[in-house]
Amino acid sequence: MTDKATRIQLFSLRTPPMRVFHLTWMAFFVCFFAWFACAPLMPLIKREFGLSVDQVANINIAAVAVTILVRLVIGPLCDRYGPRKVYCGLMLAGVFPVLGAALSTGYESFLLCRLCIGAVGACFVISQYHTSTMFAPNVVGTANAATAGWGNTGAGAAQALVPLLLAAVMALGAAQSSAWRLALMVPGLAMPVMAIFYWRFTQDCPQGNFAELRSRGIAIEGGKKGGWASFRAACANYRVWMLFTTYAACFGVEVFIHNVAAIYYVDHFHLSLKAAGFAAGSFGLLALFARALGGWLSDKAAARRGLDVRASLLFVLIVGEGLGLMGFAHADSMVPAVIAMLVFGLFTHMACGATYALVPFIDRKALGGVAGVIGAGGNVGAVAAGFLMKGVGSVQQTLAMLGMLVTLSALCALAVRFSSEHKAREAALREHALAATGTNGIAS
């Protein structure tokens, strides 16, 4: 707990935790913008490449499938090399498939690039790992949820802004067939710029970078088991798999909605591409506050009633999400559909925040493995939803079925419980961090 921040000083960049807090959500935003930049352009791309409904479904599945593998790997890599190096490396590698999608010439090449772009979605695990190393137990849920929520708005911003970027490029004289390609280059070029800032202004943990600390013989809390030992420890913990399922139910649905919302509004309610983009974007923009609200509520509830109440809160939020999703699926006009989407979206984002408010407490010695496996669960949920849509053949029916499955998955949250010894140990760590707090909000 040494030097971990016990307060979030939102307008400060003086301390390492607060620099990580702000730069990690900014990097997250850029990565998610790049990951979902193709989604609002899919009606155009579908027409240009002559894609079938089945091919569009394959592209949506590809967009999230590879993220499962990369998220599983990226957590242990953070334990081994530190989040700073891993984050910068991921952003630099992500440039190539984003620019490749802009240069694609048909279904096969676009599908391949969309598959590779999915690797960028692993940025989430690094973000949650990095803030978990920087903030003490009393605020780590809020810190994780706020950075993830603000970063997640990159997906909503892509839905709303990419159509405007497309219109601006066309206003400059570009043909529609080349304008969408130029629009995709913007997030591709933003990632290396963000990587430079992240490398320059962050460090792995409050005491410094992992490599330097290890060279001085200093133990590292989140990476004690490093690499694959961290992964194996996570896989052996039943709580990880319960949260894997709940995250599939909340973040998996979130990603699925990002990929299908624009085309659903165009096909089902006959909206224009710009109007559909704004409607779909409103779902993602809820992450500006809703995910942070879920983490904040988890922290406040745990301060009063202990660790187990975090899981109980998650149960309530996922039930709300499932019921709201069924309402969205059965909406028969645009206005009720948008209202229902915003209601279930609120619960969805809050449930995501509440899930990762629990992650730092599962196994502190295998933080990377825990964060990676649970994070992969979100993408498993998105891929499963994509295959469900392929099998059902209707977005509306898929949404209704997902609502029922999400509601049932809430039972997994109730299964997450901790031993008396575990709760006593976490309570002692919390009290130690608070007792050691200096005037600047950093444990001394």
Task: Give a description of the structure.
With 444 residues, this protein is mainly alpha-helical. The chain has one domain: MFS general substrate transporter like domains (Growth Hormone, Chain: A, Up-down Bundle). It is 77% helix and 0% strand. Helix 4 packs antiparallel against helix 6. The N and C termini lie close together (9 Å). The C terminus is likely disordered.
What characteristic shape results from the CA principal axes?
globular
Number of helices: 18
Q: Identify the CATH class.
A: Mainly Alpha
H and E string: HHHHHHHHHHHHHHHHHH
Percentage beta strand:
under 5%
Question: Can you give the helix content as a percent range?
Answer: over 70%
Q: Supply the number of structural domains.
A: 1
Considering the protein shown, what is the CATH homologous superfamily? MFS general substrate transporter like domains
CATH architecture annotation name: Up-down Bundle
Radius of gyration: 21 Å
In short:
This protein is an all-alpha fold and 444 residues long. It has helices at residues 16-36, 42-49, 53-81, 83-102, 107-117, 123-134, 140-171, 176-201, 210-215, 227-235, 238-269, 273-285, 290-305, 308-329, 334-358, 367-392, 395-414, 420-435.
Features:
444 residues; mainly alpha; Growth Hormone, Chain: A; 18 helices; 77% helix; globular; transmembrane; MFS_dom; nitrate assimilation; Nitrate/nitrite transporter NrtP; MFS_trans_sf
